[in-house]
Amino acid sequence: MEAASLPAALELAAGSGAGLSPEKRAVLGASLLLLQRDYRFERVWFWGCIQGGPGKAASSPVLQRAWACVVLVAGSLNCVEWSLLPPATEEMVAQAEQLKGRFQGDPSFEYEYTEINAEDAERLFEDGKEPMIKEESRLVATIEQIDRAVGIIPRGAFLKTPLGSVRENRNFEGLSLTEAKKLSSYFHFTEPVNLKNKTLLEKADLDPSTDFLDSLEHDIPQGSWTVQLEKGGTVVVLRSLLWLGLTFYHVPMTKQYGYVYFGTGEKNLDLPFML
Amino acid sequence: ERGHGPYQPHEPGYGLYQPGYSPYDDQIRDPKSRMLAIQNAKAYLLKSSTTSGLNLYDHLANMLTKILDEQPTNAVDIIENISKDVKWAQLQKKMDTLRDEHEILPTFEAAEKRKALFLKANGEGDEELEEEIGETPLPNVMETAFYFEQAGIGLSKDESYHVFLALKKLTSVQPIQTCRFWGKILGLEMNYIIAEVQYHEGEEEEETEEEEVIEEGGKGMGEVEDEDEKKEKEDEPPKSTYKPPPVIPKEENGTGANKYVYFVCNEPGKPWVKLPPVTPAQIVCARKIKKFFTGRLDAPVVSFPPFPGNEANYLRAQIARISAGTQISPIGFYQFAEEEGDEEEEGGGGRDTYEENPDFQPLSVAEMVDSLATWVHHGQSILKQGRCVWLNPFQKSEEEEEEDEEEEKAEEPDELQQEIGPPLLTPLSEDEGIQNIPAWTAQPSSNLIPQYAVAILQSNRWPGAYAFASGKKFDNIYFGWGHKYSPENHTPALPPPVQAEYPSGPETTETRDPTLEEELAFKAATEEALAAAEDEEDEEEVVEDDEEEEEED
Fold it and tell me: What is the model's pTM?
């Protein structure tokens, strides 16, 4: 969610019971601005909070700066001091997927692989790397995974110019109420995967400037999103069931939308059993 | 007139200025044809489109007016969007009335319901005010919400207030002694808001009558079936020796897992629905499955092992498990009621009641956070059997024993071990952790202002369960999806092994047919035996004949 509209947005996304304490909210208002100044970011989004595990619950809220495709992530343990995190690489993501369990809360904690196939171990040893992964990398990889998998935007919020670059649509007035209840009005904000697989008939209906991303209705497994109207039908809230804790909110017919993650940073692999 | 005269081919400007088209020609030169051209162009622009009825002239005029009014930055880049918007605005005016009716209804209805919450509060009249000021079962939801907010947990203030009013409505309708906002469980289509309630004594006899009626109906059916079977006893296939495990009876309302009654509603403003009491079979099954709630209480729960009940029962079972595992309080707040002869009762019963300790001395927040031993469970834990108090299902009454003597005696099942769970008011430090994470994580709500900080505990076993303590106040709450945390993935139970249809012994096992050699060998052997037997018989006959001869004499 936009850093500037953080307080209002938190109210809208509070239906799942998780949020920020008043202390954190207050400090975020100031520290985000400072972050913007220090790193010369154009815009800053508050991404969410991943809970760390034992002993101290050190929550690590995380930010993003994104313009078109450049995304940098900054993390902090207490919302006061921020440090820029290294960008996620494919390798990091692959390694992080094998880790299970909670985060520890300490960015320099190193995980050891407990279960690796013999092949993987050989491969790793050949490369000369040790099978350890730092929590920092795991954090970044998890954020990248979550964004890629369930980072969503309403249809029409971003436009593709004829030159190919993606820009925010300043004329975006929000989805209507009927549109907002449909999953097809929301897109994943990552490189589209399924777009080319659509039939020609479907493609003919698409508007290339707005429909250049994957929509949610073809997500596997079906039903991995819950769409609800909260606050008496004035806010549409989408919650992801694959990554429990991701909440997307949108007020129909207005420009307000955003998503935030409050959770443990673990993928819900039991989803097919639970539906 | 002519301007600069005809240009020669070698001069620049040759060929550019054709007669009648030079740049200096427009003002005076042939004004009529100029005007005609303008009028033609305008007429063209004013031509209405056959499909939409708009014309380009008006559209351009509107667009330019809008741009000049709003003065957007980089108008040239978004000109197409502006054009689209203007068109859209035009069309909308025609369909205005229809759209209004359609779209805004659901939000208006919901708003009406929420408004109704507020109205009732005012309409109750002043007489009841005095009663309420005294003892009210209504919990102070806003106060609790404030403390939880210090930890970043909780619903938005609006929603909390709606829940508050909804609880008030509940307490005014039902005869309730204590009431608590238990929490919110998220679902696929709708969410559940849950209130934990204790009735005044003697108020909940209605449900038990219904159950007795059902049981008697069942027994009647059983008798009819027995008669039919006796008639056909001759040619029956062997009866199955399977005896289903005995149904463990649920605990009485008001004790154990059914100590509290739970009411749910989907949204504040909607009517509260009472959840049925939970049975041990439901709890045992709920432990094995993991399903999302849909938000409709009558939805079936499709799972393996098949869940005995619908979503209302599953919800109740999960609530029971969560309460048993996560209802905690600071040590010393509750104490056991003093009773004589308590310790002489058989183990397993233990103490299941507690009362508030009037001499409770709250510990400081730092102490509450440092060690988990300062918190105790006041929710009774549920045994494997599915009850809080162990019951031996094989203790038969006298009637049942008589019946058993008549029927064939099947194998006696092994005697069940009495299950013992942790006693009430055990400190949290005894809770098992998960892998290397302790069961609870404690932290103060604020490190900057420790004087007014609140001690917050969050459960790692049931993510979403929180508790806070501050001075003499404490409370528990749950916000989540209603599932336990397990680091391993959920593996559904395998179906039980196929039962043996019949006991396999030599008489029912097929043997191989004898081969030709075996048959010949057998035949030869029997012939030999026969021959030997004949010889013996002849001897015997001779002996017998002799005997007969002797007798005759």
Answer: 0.73
